[in-house]
Prior knowledge:
This protein is α+β, with helices and mostly antiparallel strands. It has 4 domains: 9-141, Acyl-CoA dehydrogenase/oxidase, N-terminal domain (Butyryl-Coa Dehydrogenase, subunit A, domain 1, Orthogonal Bundle), CATH 1.10.540; 143-248, Butyryl-CoA Dehydrogenase, subunit A, domain 2 (Beta Barrel); 251-388, Butyryl-CoA Dehydrogenase, subunit A, domain 3, CATH 1.20.140.10; 395-572, Butyryl-CoA Dehydrogenase, subunit A, domain 3 (Up-down Bundle). Helices cover 56% and strands 10% of the residues. The protein has 19 helices and 10 strands. The strands form 2 sheets. Strands 1, 2, 3, 4, 5, 6, 7 and 8 form an 8-stranded mixed sheet that branches. The longest helix is centred in the middle third of the chain and has 37 residues, at 250-286. It starts with 27 loop residues before the first helix and ends in a 5-residue tail after the last helix.
Amino acid sequence: MKTVSQSDGFLFRVTNPNEVFTPEEFTPEQKQIRKTTRDFVGGKIAPESERIESLDVELSAKLLREAGELGLLGAHIPEAYGGLELDTISTTLISEEFARAGSLSVAHGNHTGIATWPLIFYGTEEQKKKYLAKLATAEMLGAYALTEPGSGSDALGARSTARLNEAGSHYILNGQKQWITNAGFADVYIVYAKVDGEKFTAFIVDANSPGITTGPEEKKMGISGSSTRMLYLEDVAVPVENVLGEVGKGHLVAFNALNIGRYKVGSGTLGSAKAAFETAATYASVRHQFNRPLASFGLIQEKLADMTTRIFAAESMIYRIGGLLDGGDKYDPKFVERYAVECSIAKVYGSETLDFVVDESLQIHGGYGYMKEYPIENMYRSSRINRIFEGSNEINRLLIPGTLLRRANKGELPLFDLLQQIQQSPLAGLDFGFKGALAEERQAVESAKRLFLCMFGLALQAHGGKIDERQEIMGRLANIAMEIFASESGLLRAEKSAAANRESAAAQTDIVRVYTRESLQRIQQWATAICWTVCDEAMLEQILLFVNQLTRISPLGLIPIKRKIAERAVAAGKYTM
């Protein structure tokens, strides 16, 4: 598998289609893993959905253990510690298919993500041998305890404390953790506390330790069947050998685990979006109004087409990132951290795509969608949490340009060199001479990259070292970067399909033509807002002309193309790209 070797490469270079992994390249083994997961979710979990959603934690734990017997909890764990050590693409397919399990997918994602990866990344040999094999089979179920009542997004502001006892054998933990997923049945927690009130540190804490109690189950807006409780720590004695990583280095454990967690949120929301789309396409084809199926009406067709294009972009980026993670040692946190920007993009874009899809799907259902007897009602309520999980979307938006700037300051990215070149000659070298059916769209994506760099440069000139305090600007820069990644991922996928003469190439080309143009409109809007904020009156008109020039693309009759996209979806009754 060929992958992009440089992190954040999509913003600073032209990527060849052969460098990215696409869903059309799933191996027979990967397809079998997807089928195994789908059969388990459909055959074992779906029939129990009402009991799961009513918060039957014993049933949820039982089903997780059955999933563990099939390898669906240990697919990502190294073979040396009882796992299957599958590639990232395979584990992504598991996450995507498990998303159809409703609230149980939250328990699965938490266990296989942020409750396990800290041990994989930072566990000692003894810790890995003791815990990972049991986590792989669900002999132990895991939970991640970071958030506190007074520290949500400010994770390092935690107040939980750890004090070494006089014998030097145990740390004594005190504090409370909030909204802990799987707390109703967890056997082991990854807990964060400050040693001597200062050194932020990660600990492996057995759930049966004296002094641990949990609060009642939280009553939530959605994911009602997911166990969510307070965790109370009162003089909990944790052996010193259960320190995870180094004392005072808990932030590395937390944040690198969250990189994987964010990617898993992206893959899970992709699966949920496909499920919600399926309900919409099916309903639109069987529901009649004015003696016609809903799917024959233009505005319904446009909704189905817009959902398809967003899902296609999300799917393309998710598996592109999976390919990147398979291009090195995914068990090395430093390697994974190279793709922190892409993981944040996957989380934000995936969660907002899901919210868009469930909202439009419910609208297509009309009044019926508001009724609990229809599955889209629960999907709608449960989708909302994904924009808060694993760092709010606002935090992740700040991380995207913030990480680029930090890496540029360390000499890891050519940001400043490119900014200097752009200042000297803004439009130089932009004619790449692309060929093929999507040459214009390729040119548009590369022009958008130039625009991103220009906006970044203007913001730095205006605010310098205080740019991170201008969150409105940082958020818009993040939006532009995400749109570029989404557009390019879908574009590269369609080009690769065309080169291979795949049957899906024509449909993918239609989607890319639509998405690129609508994406450019959004990019132009965000860039204009940045200009209004950072440019003085003397230069504003000239810069806005530059923005318009870099977001220019030939007009296209989008409505007929969207109708074709919708007709394909209705005929299939599901997302089929």
